[in-house]
Amino acid sequence: MTPFLLVTDLDNTLVGDDAALKELNQLLNRHRQEHGTKIVYATGRSLALYRVLTTEQQLLQPDALVAAVGTEIYLDVSDTPDKEWSEKLSQGWDRDLVVASAAHFADLVPQPETEQRPFKVSFFLTEAAAVEVLPRLESLLKDHGIDAKLIYSGGNDLDILPRNGDKGLAVQFLRQRWGIDATQTVVCGDSGNDISLFSVGEERGIIVGNARPELRLWYDINPAKHRYLAKAACAGGILEGLNYFGFLA
Ligand code: GLC
Ligand code: MG
Questions:
Q1: Residues 199, 226 contacting (CB under 8 angstroms)
Q2: How far is the CA of 144 from the centre of ligand 2 (A)?
Q3: 157 and 173 inside one domain
Q4: Residue owning the nearest CA to atom 8 of ligand 1
Q5: Residues 153 and 173 occupy one common structural domain
Q6: Three-state DSSP state, 65
Q7: Can you give the residue range of the structural domain that contains 139?
Q8: Are residue 72 and residue 136 in the same domain, yes or no?
Q9: Taking the CB of the first residue and of the last residue of the chain, which one, N or C, has fewer CB atoms within 10 A?
């Protein structure tokens, strides 16, 4: 068996079905010990909220943590985000100007302080308001010369990120650093902020059975042999997909 790189979102992807998570953890742990498989968590959460989750759930220690929707990469158990990655993100990014532009929209409700990060400005936004606010905010940011990316997830969360940052680009960065091919990489997710994981390249993709409408819609428009829509939810869907791609054979 060959080692592979497993990249997975946490909320409602890896986490959500305790029994399936336990089974998957055992399998991955063994694969890591016997074949050198690597595990990366790619989450929207800040490091602080990731730590909270580790007290609530049985999670394996990852080889790297991609936090804050791909804008921070923590290698091993380091508390400091990777500097090379931060430098890439700072190009064309003006956080204060992003905050000032967003202040024009009453529908944007700021998320808690822990989730406001150097390269991520986050709000709650209802689906009803999003239809009108997103295009207007996008053009205002453009008028201000800000090269930003808007990511809307779960009909509730809006993240504004630098052009060079998202989960997918962070995974490319890690793959290059570790010298792992896209064909030996599996990415798993359930919502809008995971779309970049699937769209960035030829990585094997597992969309869990409980995926949110925005990701399902994207998948319907972008079907590919290297993407698999699982029937089972959460970790059960990951297990199903790993078998489908033959990574556990
Ligand atoms: C997580 C983060 C939040 C973000 C959301 C969607 O819930 O805590 O800040 O908006 O993921 O990416
Ligand atoms: Mg999720």
A1: no
A2: 31
A3: no
A4: 45
A5: no
A6: strand
A7: 92-162
A8: no
A9: C
Residues 6+ apart with CB under 8 A from 89: 71, 119, 162, 164, 165
Is 169 found in the same domain as 71? yes
- The tokens for 98 are 């992003």
Do 187 and 230 lie in a common domain?
yes
> Could you tell me the distance, in angstroms and rounded to a whole number, from the CA of residue 235 to the centre of ligand 2?
12
Task: Tell which of 138, 162, 186 closes a domain.
Answer: 162
Strands 121-124, 157-162: parallel, antiparallel or unpaired by DSSP? Answer: antiparallel
Q: What is the pLDDT of residues 94-137, one digit of tens each?
A: 999 999 999 999 999 999 999 999 999 999 999 999 999 999 99
pLDDT of residue 75: 94
Probe residue for ligand 1, chosen from 66, 157, 195, 212 as the CB with the greatest number of ligand atoms within 8 Å: 157
**Residue 99 is part of a domain; what is its CATH number?**
3.90.1070.10
**What does the DSSP 8-state code read for residue 224?**
-
Domain membership flag for residue 87: no
Give the chain's radius of gyration (CA, Å): 18
Rounded to two decimals, the pTM is 0.97
Q: Specify the number of domains making up the chain.
A: 2
Tokens of 102: 């967003």
CATH number at residue 236: 3.40.50.1000
Strands (E), the chain: 5-8, 38-42, 64-67, 72-75, 109-110, 121-124, 148-153, 157-162, 185-189, 204-207, 227-229
47-60: average pLDDT: 97
